[in-house]
Amino acid sequence: MDYISTRGRAPALDFAGATLAGLASDGGLYVPREWPRFSADEIAAMAGLPYAQLAAKVMAPFVAGSLTEERLFELTTEAYGRFAHKAVTPLVQLDEQNWLLELFHGPTLAFKDVALQLLGLLFEEFLGRTGQNLTIVGATSGDTGSAAIDAVAGRDRIDIFMLHPHGRVSDVQRRQMTTVLAPNVHNIAIDGSFDDAQAMVKRMFNDSAMTDRFAIGAVNSINWARLMAQVVYYFAAALQLGAPHRKVAFSVPTGNFGDVFAGYVAAQMGLPIERLIVATNVNDILHRALSNGDYSQGEVTPTAAPSMDIQVSSNFERLLFDLGGRDGLALAEQMAGFEATKAMQLTNAQREGAAALFSSSRTDAAEMSAAIRWGWENCGQLIDPHTACGIHAARTSGIDPAVPVVTLATAHPAKFREAVERATGHRPSMPSRVGDLFEREERCTELPGDYDGIAEYVATHAVPKG
């Protein structure tokens, strides 16, 4: 399997190369040259497999030529051995139609662990072959940072620089990053939004002054390996609910479109998905794009669901590329127009292609709180604000009652204790595995939202390629 850029000009890479590169050299995102596809019988044969074994089966076509399925299974066994629940991503039934897929049993209590625990091992595997050093530069709206830092802290040949918007992540999210004092971990709080941080990360990938000296790598969902690992839990949930003999719908809280794009990939691989519901908060660029074709950037509004406070959804580019006939040069022109004007209209082909599988929803603050209350009062489940957006979207989707709807529970409610307590009167307790988080020393550097200052800081503290 090799990987091509959504913008058509970067050289194709194998899986190892795409994993270490992160962003393509032409500014595009790597995608597989073609989607592997399983038959119904092959999917049925996966039923009942332990999660690590299922993960190796689903991901094997994507890593072909870089890893054997046997080596991949060794890595998935190690990655998911740290999860607090033996099922890794257990399903919980809420009512006759609605289910929760709990993705927060990893070490940092968020769905990002499912991919990043594996990605850390993949980095180590491939760097060991090349002997080079990797400088990871990432942006986080809350959960990616802590999950990535946990995955690579203390690992040889890796430095990680994680940017987060100052004052716009929860106390738990911040402390899960800033209390990791490993020498290869650098937390940077910038004056600005997540979108500002993400733009600086993308700029660094295309800054020859940096890329000539350092091997810049990505842990954000611009890295294909992140999305590949997230495809697995769609298979896990659907198989438990009767796939391939029964269709399943998924409601996915999303800001950067990575988690829900993984569901699109699962559908391309043959998983019978009835619908993918894109659940946004009031930062609703994806809802506007999918409902009326308007992909226009607005101002970021801070909410109780900070990981969704995004107005530029990087992974949407992968969908537009696929639905636009995989014409990289045409998409490059379309994205250049968006980057220049902050506005873009989807083409007819993109709109019609998306409508075949996707629907969308916008959840305001009152609806978010109501969904949290509903989960507690009717189902005995405390859910975080991001998951609440997914629940609201699922319960108002109008999907046939015979089709199960799985909402992805993206974070443990204890990561957002104040919002959950305001809605329910109950304060979620921190899992014991988090330990003394609020007693630990913090270490973080505050910098202006200025690219040159960020680049200088990285260049001063990173180890060159070698």
Automatic annotation (TrEMBL):
Its EC number is 4.2.3.1. It holds the Pfam family Thr_synth_N. Its cofactor is pyridoxal 5'-phosphate. Residues 87-345 form the Tryptophan synthase beta chain-like PALP domain. GO terms for molecular function: threonine synthase activity. Keywords: Amino-acid biosynthesis, Lyase, Pyridoxal phosphate, Threonine biosynthesis. Pathway: Amino-acid biosynthesis; L-threonine biosynthesis; L-threonine from L-aspartate: step 5/5. Coiled coil: none annotated. It is an enzyme of class 4 (lyase). It comes from the Bacteria. Residues 3-80 form the Threonine synthase N-terminal domain. The keyword Amino-acid biosynthesis applies. It catalyses: O-phospho-L-homoserine + H2O = L-threonine + phosphate. Signal peptide: none annotated. Transmembrane segments: none annotated. NCBIfam families: thrC. Belongs to the threonine synthase family. This is Threonine synthase. The gene is thrC.
